[in-house]
Structures are given as structure tokens and as C-alpha cells.
Design goal:
Potassium Channel Kv1.1, Chain A, 2 domains, four-stranded mixed beta sheet, three-stranded mixed beta sheet, 12 strands, about 30% helix, about 20% strand
Length: about 240
Amino acid sequence: MSKTEVVTLNVGGRLFTTTRTTLTSEPDSVLGRMFDPASPLPPARMIDGAYFIDANPAIFEVVLDFLRHRCILLPPNLPMQAVSAQARYFGLEELLLKGEEQRPEARVKVNAGGTLFETTRATLTGQPDSHLTSLLLQGEQELFLDVCPKAFEVLLCFLRCGARKIPPGSAVCAESIGAAAQRLGLNICLESKRGPGFCKIVWTDERKEKPRFINCKMLGLKNHKNAATSDDWLLDD
């Protein structure tokens, strides 16, 4: 019986195909001992040519992907706690450790253009569809972002509290904020009442005695449009 043998699993009524090498990649785990040909622990019982495992198939898919690739690919609406519970049941210590690192409150270090920042995973994944979130879903605890550090500082404040402001004393070029936002896939605008394609002018530059409103083009977002209606020139409450 070879470890490279293809194995079919019936997990909660759903069929999975993998290899013994994958299932035994954590040899001290319950799964590893169940499918190690040299282990005295018997494998799961066979049903119609597949090893039956009584577990949630959606969660087991995440477990199996982790055993294959050593990264947690968590689909939307599936909490990490559920994956951790199944990992604990199967004795998958490495997956448990990675899961702890991906908790929303876990801290992440970011090197933005040579300047170090520290924040939480929850802050950086505030926009689920952004490129920044996709980087975090790969399980990284340290990121290097090739963006202007002063622009990233402004964007980090935006992600933390929603403030669309360039603070007093900041030496950032306004256009670099939009460039960094586009590189990271962050939406920093608000839609105007005029409909899709139009943005409210909700950013302010507070670096002068009298703050001024700035539009998308001033932030380097060349393809955006600003509606020139009275309500669009006001900051939202």
C-alpha cells in the first residue's frame, strides 16, 4: 500500500479524491495515523468504495486544501472557528496554529515602501473584495507593499475609522493616495446621488488653515467623476 495511492473519501455524503501523501502530511494527527499504512490505527470504514468520514464537507474542503498547500483558503460565511474545531478533532496542530494567526484580532506587520506599520487583520480586511484582503487571505503575517508610506498611513487611518482626510502636517502628495488605493484595490469614494459612475466629494485636505474639499481627480483617480450638486460637496455625517 503506497502513500501515493489515490484515496476516495465520503465526507458527510460528499466525495473527495486525494492521496495518502496528502492525508498523512501531518503524521502525528488522527488523519495521518488513520491513513498511514504502517500505523496500527485503522482507517475509516469503507462505504461503496470510499472511506466514510462523518464531518462537515464544506469545512473538510478547507482542511484538505490546507494539507495540500499549507495555506488556509477560507470561503465567505465560513467562520475560522468552525475550521479550528474540525482541525482540533483531527489533531491538526499546524492548521490550528495558522488559524490562530488568521483571527481578525491577530496583528499584522506591514512594510509600506520601507516604513513599518502594525495593525490588525480585521482592519486590513475591512473591504473583502480588495487586493489587500486577498493578500491577507493567504495567511501572511508580514506584508510588503510597494506604495508610498505616507499615502498608506492616510489609507490605514481610513480603514480604521472611515476618515477621508489628509491630516495636518502630512507631507503626502494627494495623487499618491489614489495611486496607492488603486494598487491595493481599495474603494475610497462614496457614490453620488447622480448614480453609478459619479462620486461624492467627501475627502478633505486639512493641511491649510482653512480645510479644502478635494475630488477624485486630485487624488489621482482619473477615471472617476464628481457630481457638482450641492449635497455632493458636503462631508457625510
